[in-house]
């Protein structure tokens, strides 16, 4: 009966796929409880407790943002672009969530070449991201020279004093990444319940026009000494935002920008290289 109800909500093909995934899941939940949660509208990733991200399996818990395929796509492309940069790379991921972006970069680049930090205002995200570092086999100690490292700290990069000395993370950075909150208010009030009722609003809502966090990131990376020579900044953007985000970075400093398309040909990532 539960599968029939799920089929009426999702369609037979999708419901059958999800039913098989739930049957194969290693979970303390019974199949019926998983089905009941899915029928109620909870995202499957939260029920299974994990999400593939490139070759990695990322642990998930609500309300931390669920990694999306478009984020995976540009992260892999970015890792390919990084290989000419000098090692060890110093990486800062703003609004890290599960830690999926820096963790995938750590996986794709040679061991001992990456020193990465994530920043998130959410204690739930910080705890989960650090768990994911261990789960994916990376050290949280920057003194571990044999492995790539990733550590997440709780802080707000909107604070004009960020990064504070006590955080033990300091410029310059070779790479700054972010999948920031970018949903505008008109879009936010139209979100489906599967998103609005489960994922953290702080990870979704980017201000009235969705651009608040891009202004903050642009101001941050424009500070003298924040980026190393040859550094790269990569930010994910919402549909229709790419050119406005380009303008924000270009207005903040002398920054060259380019736009990357996602697999569905949407303008998804703005890549910034300071200097002319």
TrEMBL record:
<dbReference type="GO" id="GO:0008276">
    <property type="term" value="F:protein methyltransferase activity"/>
</dbReference>
<keyword id="KW-0808">Transferase</keyword>
<protein>
    <submittedName>
        <fullName>S-adenosyl-L-methionine-dependent methyltransferase</fullName>
    </submittedName>
</protein>
<dbReference type="InterPro" id="IPR025714">
    <property type="entry name" value="Methyltranfer_dom"/>
</dbReference>
<keyword id="KW-0489">Methyltransferase</keyword>
<dbReference type="InterPro" id="IPR004556">
    <property type="entry name" value="HemK-like"/>
</dbReference>
<dbReference type="GO" id="GO:0032259">
    <property type="term" value="P:methylation"/>
</dbReference>
<feature type="domain" description="Methyltransferase">
    <location>
        <begin position="90"/>
        <end position="139"/>
    </location>
</feature>
<dbReference type="GO" id="GO:0005739">
    <property type="term" value="C:mitochondrion"/>
</dbReference>
<dbReference type="InterPro" id="IPR029063">
    <property type="entry name" value="SAM-dependent_MTases_sf"/>
</dbReference>
<dbReference type="InterPro" id="IPR050320">
    <property type="entry name" value="N5-glutamine_MTase"/>
</dbReference>
<dbReference type="Pfam" id="PF13847">
    <property type="entry name" value="Methyltransf_31"/>
</dbReference>
<keyword id="KW-0949">S-adenosyl-L-methionine</keyword>
């Amino acid at each position: 009966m539960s599968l029939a109800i799920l089929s009426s909500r999702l369609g037979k093909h999708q419901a059958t796929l999800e039913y098989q995934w739930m049957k194969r899941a290693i979970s303390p939940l019974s199949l019926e409880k998983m089905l009941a949660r899915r029928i109620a509208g909870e995202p499957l990733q939260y029920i299974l407790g994990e999400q593939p991200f490139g070759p990695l399996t990322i642990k998930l818990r609500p309300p931390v943002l669920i990694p999306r395929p478009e984020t995976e796509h540009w992260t892999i492309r970015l890792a390919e672009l990084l290989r000419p940069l000098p090692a060890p790379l110093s990486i800062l991921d703003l609004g890290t969530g599960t830690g999926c972006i820096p963790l995938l970069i750590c996986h794709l680049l040679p061991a001992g070449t990456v020193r990465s930090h994530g920043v998130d205002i959410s204690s739930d995200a910080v705890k989960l991201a650090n768990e994911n570092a261990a789960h994916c086999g990376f050290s949280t100690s920057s003194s571990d020279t044999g492995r790539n490292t990733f550590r997440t700290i709780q802080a707000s990069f909107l604070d004009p004093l960020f990064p504070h000395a006590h955080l033990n993370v300091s410029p310059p950075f070779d790479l700054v990444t972010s999948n920031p909150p970018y949903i505008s208010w008109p879009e936010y009030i139209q979100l489906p319940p599967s998103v609005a009722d489960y994922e953290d609003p702080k990870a979704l809502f980017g201000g009235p026009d969705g651009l608040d966090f891009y202004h903050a990131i642009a101001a941050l990376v424009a500070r003298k000494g924040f980026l190393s020579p040859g550094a790269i900044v990569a930010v994910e953007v919402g549909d229709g935002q790419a050119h406005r985000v380009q303008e924000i970075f270009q207005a903040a400093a002398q920054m060259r920008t380019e736009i990357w398309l996602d697999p569905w040909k949407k303008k998804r990532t703005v890549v910034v290289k300071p200097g002319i």
